[in-house]
UniProtKB/TrEMBL annotation:
Belongs to the aspartokinase family. Residues 387-444 form the Aspartokinase ACT domain. Residues 5-277 form the Aspartate/glutamate/uridylate kinase domain. It catalyses: L-aspartate + ATP = 4-phospho-L-aspartate + ADP. Keywords: Amino-acid biosynthesis, ATP-binding, Kinase, Nucleotide-binding, Transferase. The lineage of its organism: Bacteria, Pseudomonadati, Pseudomonadota, Gammaproteobacteria, Alteromonadales. The gene is lysC. CDD domains: ACT_AKiii-LysC-EC_1, ACT_AKiii-LysC-EC_2. This is Aspartokinase.
Amino acid sequence: MSLNIAKFGGTSVANIDAMRNCAKIVIDNPSTRVVVVSAAAGVTNYLVQLANEELTSEQINDLITKVEEIEFAILAGLESPPHVMVKLNELLSLLRELAFHEEILHRPDLKDAILSLGERMSSLLFAELLCQMGQQAENFDARKVIKTDNEFGQAEPDIQVIAVQAEKLMKPELERTVLVTQGFIGSDEQDNTTTLGRGGSDYTAALLAEALDADTCEIWTDVIGVYTTDPRITDKARPLPELSFEEAAEMATFGAKVLHPATMVPAVRKNIRVFVGSSREPEKGGTWIAKNCQQEPHYRALTRRKDQVLVTVKTPSMLYASGFLQQVFEILANHHLSVDLVTTSEIAVSLTIDNPPNSVRARLNKATIEDLKQISEVTVEEGYDLVTVVGNNMHSAAGVSSRIFNAVRDFNLRLICYGANPHNISILVKDEDSTDVVKVLHRDLFEE
Ligand code: ADP
Ligand code: ASP
Ligand code: MG
């Protein structure tokens, strides 16, 4: 029988009614044997505040109450069996303990422990709901399988170990029961809880699909598929029936929040088809992401990634020198910074660095800049967004880029980059311009 992994995002499990829609989707597809859930909408944001902000006891209590209200409201919609209430209260006690821990603001391991609680609570409640709706289901601790390094907040999964653990602990159960597990969380070699970065539940689903050799992986969210651009930027955005692996990977990397940036990586490795649809309106269908598509248009979609940092390193010794770029990249790699766009001139190199919450902003710090200053003059510019046009054969067809540049002729473009593959062209613009840039590009490339 074929195997499907279904992932439900935060809004899909935000309350009991939303959860019921998800439960129906699971029950309607007998191939769905593994369910991955996010924390209920809003919960992870509260946990991030508890983990990172200097708060008074009153503020801490207020945040805990907000989390409790969300979880208890879901529990109230269940027939509140005592064993679930006991487990939920255990998790809430742990939340309180961690939130008031003296070292919470300074210990990344404690931060990840607290961040994991949203998924641990929602998976407990969702498993119970499935049971009450007549579907045999069990809550499964993802940390036993999703083994990672100890880069807390942005942990890197260990694919080989995950495959072994999934085969040993999950596979044998799937005939008997649906396993409801947590997205976003894992554990390191010492069994400390880790997290995969914000939005990481999509990545968990893809990693489990890979490890369990699934046929399909469904990402159920609040939109009826992947759109031509974020429907929150323009109401002219429209859902796409199909996308290729490459296009989806580019979109995820360059900021389409609907998929965590790494989601496509495991899917591509194992050629697993990925579906994106709305848990509220499953009947409306969604986007199928597969190796090959029926059509390969030059322009498929637009993405925007906010909070980009532009670093320029300049040194006269770069003139005719070899090895300078290598030094620059080595320093950035040592600080775990991943570089996106690179442009060079005779004596300078500019590069953009993504600044996702919880990770890079913390690392593009004094230490990185000090290291770069050892070998060059450094300037750091903030306040940019990266807008990317994703499509096909963008390098080989005449006129593809001129249409793009013509559309944005009235804007100041700080940097332009042709991707190293034929699927993207990116431009860096001032953050206050980016909404308009996406709108005019959308109009010229998709609405005519
Ligand atoms: P979930 O909690 O289900 O993971 P997310 O909020 O992470 O949901 O992702 C869904 C959101 O992604 C949508 O509501 C939409 O605003 C945003 N988004 C950004 N780009 C796109 C796109 N190209 N297509 C669809 N949604 C997009
Ligand atoms: N709950 C986590 C977050 O809000 C992970 C996820 O939703 O994918 O980032
Ligand atoms: Mg998400």
